[in-house]
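Researcher: Last one for today. Full complex below.
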Amino acid sequence: MTEQSMVKQERAARTRESLIRSAAEIFDREGFAVASLTVISSLAGVSNGALHFHFSSKAALADAVQEEALTRLLAVTDAVPPLGTSRVQLLVDVTHGLAAALRTDAVLRAGFELCGEASRASQFDLRERWQRWVEETLKQADAEGELRPEVAAQDVVTAVVAATVGFEVLGARDAVWLSASTVTRFWRLLLPLLVRASLVAELEAEGTRVP
Amino acid sequence: MTEQSMVKQERAARTRESLIRSAAEIFDREGFAVASLTVISSLAGVSNGALHFHFSSKAALADAVQEEALTRLLAVTDAVPPLGTSRVQLLVDVTHGLAAALRTDAVLRAGFELCGEASRASQFDLRERWQRWVEETLKQADAEGELRPEVAAQDVVTAVVAATVGFEVLGARDAVWLSASTVTRFWRLLLPLLVRASLVAELEAEGTRVP
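Model: Here's the assembly. Have a good evening.
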């Protein structure tokens, strides 16, 4: 590849990223259905033609936003925990990480919001992916003997997924729902119910990750 | 009033109701932003002109849907419980009632969904009204000594409101989130945590209201 074509390729990649970020911001602020491609390209500082070169339609742009949001969700869920971290503590930490990311990252926020968009079918369903991760993690916690014997892991999945999706949706209007203190209070309430008494004292509802 | 003008007035009221029902169905299915007034009036079996006689804009129609949805929410929350029902049991029963109503009632569903619509400000915020009712009820439960002393009523409010909004949002895509069994499993998990041991045995997670 010539130096010139490499420069061109890099520039194209940057334009694409910038369009995805701008689209996420406008989807997040105005909703997918009313978002205007002209506003998006102008926020990205490119022409309408450049937008159409990268994305054939608003739906294609929304798919790209969700794909990028999925990458960011996986960065939160798949971060390697310190050795010896219990599965339940990992769940607490990742919930905090997700809330923090939703507070600051419009791409992640738009990616989640697009799942609830009645006017389009989601190719990347972030809420479903989140649910699967919670399910998998609680199954492991159960297998490791971390959960109280009388607690059904699937009931915990239902409660945790519903509550976190609630935080996400309510947080779009009022950021306090995504604050560290809200997430901490949720876990402070739930932890004594979920885990064996000997483990409760070891767990930190406010999370153990350096923010 | 003449008999003729009474007939006219009744017909107008029926048309208005029918437009609200049709709008709710279309908002629920396609989303507020893309919903077409022509589709709504045709579903209601009236002309575009008749729609505009009753509602000056799509926003006015959305307000009317939310106002009607609020009436239906209040019918669920304000139903008088049998004498001697504990506040926590009332909360359980009403959550079941809300989920059942959301399963079957497109007006209530659309009213809640419109709260999350980025493209418009809600005049009637049903999620906020629901939150206030949960808050009030748990405050009473606390005052009656139903809650465990170590549980902070406000933490329960946070968890219950987030989870029920989660059920509502996830239920729009997959009705199982609004099923009686989902709500029952949620309460079966939470009740032992919330109330004094002596009360747990008396409470029914599946609700006590005749459906």
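The CA atoms of residues 38 and 48 of chain B lie 6 Å apart. The interface with chain A takes residues 28-34, 113, 115-119, 127, 151-152, 154-156, 158-159, 161-167, 169-170, 172-173, 177, 182, 185-186, 188-190, 192-193 of chain B (CB under 8 Å).
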